[in-house]
Each structure stands twice: as C-alpha cells, then as structure tokens.
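Pipeline run #58 for the internal structure catalog. This entry was flagged by the ingest filter as a single-chain record with no existing model, so it goes straight to prediction. Upstream metadata was stripped on purpose; only the residue string is passed forward. Reviewer on rotation: M.T. Logging verbosity set to normal.
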Amino acid sequence: NIKIPGMATIDEVIVLGASGGFGTLFSQVLSKSGIKVRGISRKGSPRADACFTDYLSADPCDPKEAVIERVRSASAVISCLPPGPCVRALEALAPHMASGALFTDVLSVKSGICRAYSELKDKYPHVELLSLHPMFAPAAGWHGQNTVSIHIRTGARSKAFEALVETWGSTIVPMESGELHDRVTSAVQNATHAALISFGLTLKKMGYDAGLAKKISTPPHRAMIAVIQRMASINEPDTYWDIQTENPYAASTWQHLQEAVEEVRGAVEEKRRDAFCNIIADFKPLLEAANAEGSCESPY
C-alpha cells in the first residue's frame, strides 16, 4: 500500500454503503493505492466496476460478527450512508474500532452530522472523527476537484487520509465547522443548482428546440446547456434533492433567488436601463476575491 513519509499507515479500509456511486469510487482509488478495501452494504452485490477486496451484504447499523471482525482490523471506516444511518453506524461500530482508527463520511450537508459527531466524540475517545465533502459527483472522479475537510477529533490517521485524498488529485479545503460549510455551500451548491434546474425547466416550458438553438447558440448558452446536460446524464437527482432539502440555509437561498428574478424582471418591465445595467456591474466587486486568487476560469 501507499506509504506517505511521516504519515500513519492506512492499510485496510471499510466502505459502508458500498454499492453506491461514492462507495464504488472509493473501491477503485483505494485499491489502486494498494489498500485492502472491504465493502459492506445492505444491497446484495457491488457494481460491476467496483474493486473491493471483499464485499459483505450486511447492515452496519446492526452489526453481526462478520461485520465486527472486519471493523476490528480496519484503519478507517468510510461511511457513504445517509445522515441517520451514518450516525447509527458510528454508534454501532465505534465500540469495536481499534484505537486511533478513523471514521469519516462524505455527506453533502454538514451541520447535523458534525453536531452528532461532537456529541458522540467523548463517548468514543479512541476513534478519530473527520467529516469530508467531495465537491463533485462520483462520475467526475477526484482529479482536479475540491474536497472539504472538517476536523471533529483528528490525529495521525486523519492526516494520513487527507494526504491520501490529495494523491488522487483532489485539493483538501479545511473548514472550521459544519455550519460554515453549509453557509458557503448554500451559494456554491444550493443557489447554483436551483438556478440551473430552473433554467432547464424554463427551456422545457418554452418548447425549446435544442437542434435549432445549437446552430445559433452563444458561448453563455452553450456553457449553461453543457452543465444541465451533465446533470441529466449523471442521473443522480437524489443528490440534488438532498442538498436542496437538508441544507439549513436552503430556504433563505430560494428566497434570495426569487427576489433576484423579480428585481431583474421589474427593471426590464419598467424600462429602468440603469438599474438593469447596475445589477450586472455589481457582479465585478462581488467576485473580486475569487479573481484575485485566480479561481475564476472562463468556460468559453
């Protein structure tokens, strides 16, 4: 297995929720890193492209001896489960985890899970707790993507796992709390997805002719179409649904979006050219910090 100088060894990993997209992705990258990767899922079999060392059909929230035996020898347990089962799995498995072993998750909304970890950390002082959020769909892969990392109680294994993620080509971005994560992702994900989904639905309601539009398309239109095509082709609407329904800042984001549409519409209908132009001009100071870091790349 990969050994990063000065880092704790990660030689055996358990993936919970192993039959899903991220479970499969973890099996692929961990196995390529030379790590023994053992899948556990309530579903009977892994995906055809999964690369697990072994795979067990079992409930990690109600572990039997076969699950417990695997947990005892694991360096890390990665949960690809929804929030409720993730917490229940931690409570069921932590008593059997080795001292210094890592428990981590890949949930898209962090306030609730980080609060649960904080409430449970004193109960399981021997277990490291790290909450990760890969900022991409599994089909995109790790390379060139960002991964948020929130430390609850971390140590050598957490540090080693973050370093391992970076060997896959992802950039680890530390955040101090689940609340901060959800506040930022309400813009990065909730507002972005809401605008894109609304854009696609608008085209449908207009009777959009994709073939004809393509012949005269503009760069901004092609960029937007490419994104909603990707959303549709990946076909993981539950991910978008979870983000929209579980982020505690989602309601206020939708309210701001509705107000923004009405403000633009009002300026157009009332022929207030200056107001309309000022809306666009105000984007520049809004995005200056991102431009200064060189993080805004033109899609065309």
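catalog note: The CA atoms of residues 284 and 291 lie 9 Å apart.
catalog note: The mean pLDDT is 94.
status: ready for reviewer M.T.
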